[in-house]
Amino acid sequence: MARFQAKEPNGVAVQQLEVLVRTAVFKSANALVGVLLQEAADRIDTAYQPKPGQQYKGRVRVEVKGMFGVLPLERDYYYHEGKKQGHYPADAALGLETGHTPALTRLMCLEGADETSYQKAEQHLEETGGIHVSSRQVQRMVQRVGAAAQQWQERPAQPGGRAVPIMYVSADGTGVPMRKEELAGRAGHQPDGTAKTRLAYLGCVFTQHTRDEKGHPVRDYESTTYVSSFGPIEEFGPCLRQDAIRRGLALALQVVLLIDGAEGLGNMGRLCFPGAIQIVDFYHALEHAGKVLVALLGSKDHPDYKTRLGRWARRLLNDKVEQLIAQARQECAGKAQAQAVEKELGYFINNVARMQYGTFRAKGFFIGSGVIEAGCKTVIGARCKQSGMFWGEPGAENVLALRCIQSSHRLDEFWQDRLNTHAARNDSLKLAA
Predict the structure, then answer these.
(1) Where along the chain do its domains lie?
(2) Nearest to 275 by CA among 306, 241, 232
């Protein structure tokens, strides 16, 4: 280690000392990891049985990037002439990703998906771990692994979980800004009819066992899991159902679907969660109540607007949605605003059964979709809707898949599955079978 001298103890001196110590430790750790990695590769190559058609082409040297630096590695190479495909048995068994160790790969994906940009991921890796990878390398790794992460989200479920009193399923969609070529020919809400965003769906599953001292429902700690998709609702719904099955859908005593009242989500609930109680988020109900009142009164500035909105809230909480519809119709009957009021009342007419908030609260259910609303902001918005961002659909989808897995506390499960998938490439039994 380089000689260190400081006349006076101060912050700069301590920082310099820490950098020197870290450098020395990294060099020692890197040397040890390199020896162990080469020994493991030699054992793998010795035990490997080539598949039919694979020809041994000799040893090939590669520079492997790890957490502590660059590692030289020599391993056997095989080539299948018929498939025009090469194979390194040691790379597969060790879980190397384009010359990166599994630990570094996982860290790059974590930073690339978690930070607000790939540039920040590069800086964070450099500042906190002394790891030198470019933002472009981080991006490529996120896209490589993220594609598999999206497939992992959509995998068929094996029934699991455990019995719970109440399981909640919630879903929503939010627009993600896209590059122009991704939006060609797509209709949108711009004045000229074009689109600036693509709709990304986010779904979540969480559970509830108890209520607090005031009788309000309490979400189980760290029970929320997420799935995302840019596909149509017809594909997203079954994906969300598979996640609920993994969480124990068949064992739940009661399933509740929390949505914003959109007809597409309601249809998804009927098809994918036929036994669930559907609840329209109370916040969205109040938003639409405000629209009804604006149609009735002419403006939010009307002196009775706030008073009457509060009255709507209280009556909605007492299962009076049908009476509110009837009263609004009676008030505007024969008046110029009758058509506008009827249009806004359509939201309530279509969701009467989903707006029995007094009954739902008495049963101890959540009546707000705050969990999925927050998820749209933190899982999607915090990474994909920053100022100046314009995405390609695969790029955004892959990032969101990794973020969903992380937010669902499933990183260990995903990475173990990926390592097993890599190692299975050496298995000759599947081909023989």
Answers:
(1) 11-153+411-432, 166-279+376-391, 284-349
(2) 241
DSSP 288-348: HHHHHHHHHHS-TTSTTHHHHHHHHHHHHTTT-HHHHHHHHHHHHTTSTTHHHHHHHHHHH
Instruction: Provide the residue type at 60 as one letter.
Output: V
Cβ atoms of 209 and 165 closer than 8 Å: yes
Tell me the two tokens of residue 11: 């912050």
User: 3-state SS string over 186-210?
Assistant: CECCCCCCECCEEEEEEEEEEEEEE
d(CA 307, CA 313): 10
Q: How many Å apart are CA 6 and CA 15, to the nearest integer?
A: 11
CA-derived radius of gyration, the chain:
28
The residue among 24 and 144 whose pLDDT is bigger is 144
pLDDT by residue (tens digit) across 106-118?
999 999 999 999 9
| Cα–Cα distance list, 18 to 1, 6, 128, 162, 314 (Å) | 12, 13, 12, 48, 61
CA–CA dist 273, 166 (Å, integer): 14
- Quick one: how far is CA 371 from the chain centroid? 13
Exposure string over 140-167, b if 16+ CB within 10 A, otherwise e: ebbbbbbebbbebbbeeeeeebeebebb
Alpha-carbon span 129 to 118, nearest angstrom: 16
Cα separation of 81 and 258, whole Å? 55
DSSP secondary structure letter of residue 178: B
Nearest by Cα to 179 from 379, 400, 388, 382: 388
Query: pTM of the predicted model, to two decimals?
Result: 0.90
